[in-house]
Structures are given as structure tokens and as C-alpha cells.
Design brief:
2 copies of one chain form a homodimer. In chain A, about 40% of the residues lie in helices and about 20% in strands. In chain A, helix 5 links the parallel strand 6 and strand 7. The first copy, chain A, is α/β, with parallel strands linked by helices and about 270 residues long.
Chain lengths: ~270, ~270
């Protein structure tokens, strides 16, 4: 099997930074998984004793806590601060931006619209910075049923697709007097998505490598499927099924922003062997 | 010939208001034509002695001047005020809005983008309220060659097409960190355009009635042509050519926001007779 890598893929700035922070802070805990890649989380626990704690209440007794790349809700942060826990902030700077924007715009009286998944930890964090209840919509269809104000501020989960953000923006522009749009989709997301859009149109089969709960990985997979019916999402080489490759000659590979190179290399190696 | 009128067409709020103002102020002058309809301007001069003066310098000696629906540049207004001329403001309130927005946003450091025709009087007026040189673009293609700042405010000439404003907005959203979008396309324009979009898809021939220098009339004509190859722009019934209607059964009619009912009625009457 011939293999072609996407022009851009894999680790982004925020993930690299968070992993370096974790490796420098052995024996600490992170509140929720640091990044959405179970294999890398396993490695950090095994090699650096960085453990995952899901319950903010249980962290009280810990000496130090790493804040995950996705950020955490404002109240959780306040709770940790009140407890005197040492906070090591690995929130991606591109995630801090929508938090700050939502805080400022809601204070200025703008109705907040967040394009994102309400249950994703990044979005939960962003929501918590709004002083008024924001509208959280995962699609244009969800927005169309909502009551809109005259002055609206729009931010996006950093890993969403730009064309879908533009659909939502266009709807707001035609229904509101003023729309203040902050394109908070991060550049790595945008570049990785563009690269998958290109590559999936020239291959027989696409393999996206990444965590199954990783938002940016799922978006890459969704884009790949649009252009290449034979697209698959795998967490590592064990998920590869040789029957997928029967009759295929060229396989495209991309990987989410939280997928480490060692996992991608193993997947690539195994596919080359088919 | 059967005739079908568009669902919305003709005189808008701002034009009606301006004509009422002119009729109440006999023997006055307007700085430039009050509205972009030569036949109606002739009627106002003939019946109310409201004359058109193109040169702001020549108005010095006049007792009172009517400001046209399109507004005038800030400096011209200041000149008239300094001269002690009595100002009767017939600027459409929907045109005052982009003037105010551009003044405020440029003062706050936003790069101003105006979607409009730089030579149209409305746009000249809006430009004059920007404290920094604005980008004035008549199309997305014109915008793509420009250097953009991080924080941009976008307004539109009131008579432009919404889908084209959305194209420009989308480009800005993908190229700037913050885009503040004020949808200043007026409702009458939007409704008239939507109605032409619908009607031109169900008729054999479309006739748009309005002044040939009227921006909103030209937009209606452009939309009609998109969907109905046999579309024509006429200023009044004299422009109708019977050969256009040969072999046609259903004629759609719409009219610009500055086209008076009496002109439209004459056009309709003549078409019914073909």
C-alpha cells in the first residue's frame, strides 16, 4: 500500500506545550485528561506519574494540579484557588481567548452565541465566563430555533469547521443589527482541516489517527468522509483492519492535534505493510 | 400580455418621507437630486418649485436647502451650517445609521470596510464620517487584494445585495481576528430583492422600473437577469419596446425604491396592452 501524509497534521502548539508542562511536573494530577488522547495520557501516567482526576472536589488534598488544554469552568478554578492548591495552567492560549471574549462581551450586554458542543470541556469552560446565559449551538439548525437579540457576539470552539462557522455567522448577520464575530477556530485546526479536505480527494482510502473523544480529530474524520467514502478513525495501529485496504492503492493519513508522532508512525508503518 | 407584480416593490419609507418634506418646502433647493428618479425630480420642480443644485458652493445665498435621501459628506454639511443656511434634512434614517457607525468604529480604532460604490452619493457621505481612510469595495474580488487589519468593522451601502455582503463578511471572518458586522442593508431593499428573486423565476420576461442611476433599481435588475434572461430596466413607459414581448405570455414587474406609483401604473398599463 502506498501512503500519503496530509500537508498538516498532528500535534499543535497547545498540546505540545501542555505535554512539556506535564513532563516537567512529575507526580502531579490533571483535572480531567490533559488532552483527548488516551494512549498519550497512559504514557504520561506510566513515565511521569501524572494522573487524571475527574473530580474537582477530590483535588483539595493535592499539592498541585495541572489545568487541561481545554481549560476548566471559572467556578472550578475559584474552588482550587480557595483551597490553596498550586495551579499549573496548561490551558491552550487559543482557548483562553474565547473565555476572555465571552467574559467581556457579556459584560457589555451582547447576547453570546457559542458555536460548539455544550458537553465538551472546552465549551463548558467558555460558557462559565459568560455573565448571561449564552446560546450554545452545534449547528446552524440549532440556531434557527432560537430567539436572537439585536447585538450578538459569536465565538467558536477552537476545533470547529470554518465553513460551518460562516453559515452560523451569515444567519446572524441577516437576523441581527450588529454581530461581533471572533474567529476563535485555531490555525492548527484550520490548517489540518484544509489539508484533509485536499488529501481526501486524491486517495482511495483515508485513515485519521486520534482519540475518539477528541473534537478536532472527529472534525477531520467528518471532512474526510465528505470526500472519501472509505474513511476510518483509529486510535492506534491495533484498530486497523486489513480488509479495509483490499483493492486500494493509495492511503491518505492525517492525525488530530492531540495525536503523538509515535502513534502516527506505528499506524503508517502497519499500513505500508498491507 | 399577462402581468404579475412583485410581492414588494416601489417607494420605501425614506423616499416617501423625503418627498413629503420636499412638498412641504416649496421654492427650496436640494443639494443634488433628492432621490434617484429623474421623472419624480421633474415633478417636484414643476409642481413645487423644488430645484436641484449640484454645487454646494452655490447654495450659500439660498435660504434653505434640503439634504437628499442619500445624505451628504460631513464637510459639505459643515459648510452649509457655517454659512447659516437653513438645513432641511431628508437623509434617510437608514443612511444615517452607517454614517454614525463608521464615525464611532473608526474612532475606536477599527479598520473600516464599506461594501458599496465609492462614487455613489450615499457612500461618499458615509466615507466622510470615518476618521481613518476606509476600504471601499464594490465586490469580494476588490477586497481580496487589500491589506486587512486585525479588527475590522463592516457596513454596507443600504441598497446592496445581502448574499454579496455575506461573501465579503465571510472573507473578513477568515482573515481577521475580530469582525464587527453591521447589516445596514435596509429592509425595503432586502424585501424588494427577495421578491424579484422569486418572481423572476416564474415569468417569461421581467421589467424593472426605476432611475438608471438608482443603485437599488440596478440591483433589482441584476437579480432579475440572474434568473430571467429577458429582463429590462425602464425609466418609464416610453422605454418599453413591443418587440421584447413577442412570444411571451407572463411579464413580471418590479420597481426601485425611488420609483413613484404613477410611473409604475403607466408601465403596467402599457404592458397589459401588448
Amino acid at each position: 500500500m502506498e501512503v500519503k501524509m496530509a500537508k498538516n497534521y498532528g500535534f499543535c502548539f497547545g498540546v505540545k506545550r501542555a505535554i512539556e508542562i506535564a513532563q516537567k511536573n512529575k507526580n502531579s494530577v490533571s483535572l480531567g485528561p490533559l488532552i483527548h488522547n488516551p494512549k498519550e495520557i497512559e504514557r504520561l501516567e506510566r513515565d511521569f506519574n501524572v494522573r487524571v482526576q475527574e473530580d474537582v472536589g477530590a483535588i483539595k488534598s493535592q499539592k498541585s494540579v495541572i489545568i487541561r488544554t481545554h481549560g476548566i469552568p471559572k467556578d472550578d478554578l475559584a474552588l482550587l484557588q480557595d483551597e490553596g492548591v498550586r495551579i499549573i495552567d496548561a490551558t491552550c492560549p487559543y482557548v483562553i481567548k474565547p473565555q476572555q471574549i465571552v467574559e467581556k462581551m457579556s459584560a457589555q450586554g451582547y447576547q453570546i452565541v457559542i458555536f460548539g458542543d455544550a458537553n465538551h470541556p472546552e465549551v463548558k469552560g467558555v460558557i462559565s465566563y459568560s455573565s448571561t446565559p449564552p446560546l450554545v449551538v452545534a449547528s446552524l439548525a440549532e440556531l434557527q430555533t432560537q430567539k436572537l437579540g439585536k447585538r450578538v457576539a459569536l465565538v467558536s470552539q477552537t476545533t470547529k469547521q470554518t465553513p460551518k462557522l460562516l453559515e452560523i455567522a451569515s444567519f446572524l448577520i441577516t437576523h441581527c443589527a450588529e454581530v461581533r464575530i471572533f474567529n476563535t477556530i485555531c490555525n492548527a485546526t484550520f490548517d489540518n482541516q484544509e489539508a484533509v479536505r485536499d488529501l481526501s480527494q486524491e486517495v482511495d482510502i483515508m485513515v485519521i489517527v486520534g482519540g475518539k473523544s477528541s473534537s478536532n480529530t472527529k472534525q477531520l474524520f467528518n471532512i474526510a468522509k465528505e470526500f472519501c467514502a472509505d474513511s476510518y478513525l483509529v486510535e492506534d495501529f491495533n484498530d486497523l483492519d486489513p480488509t479495509w485496504f483490499v483493492g486500494k492503492t493509495l492511503c491518505g493519513i492525517s492525525a488530530g492535534a492531540s495525536t503523538p508522532d509515535w502513534i502516527i508512525a506505528d499506524v503508517r508503518e502497519k499500513i505500508l505493510g498491507f
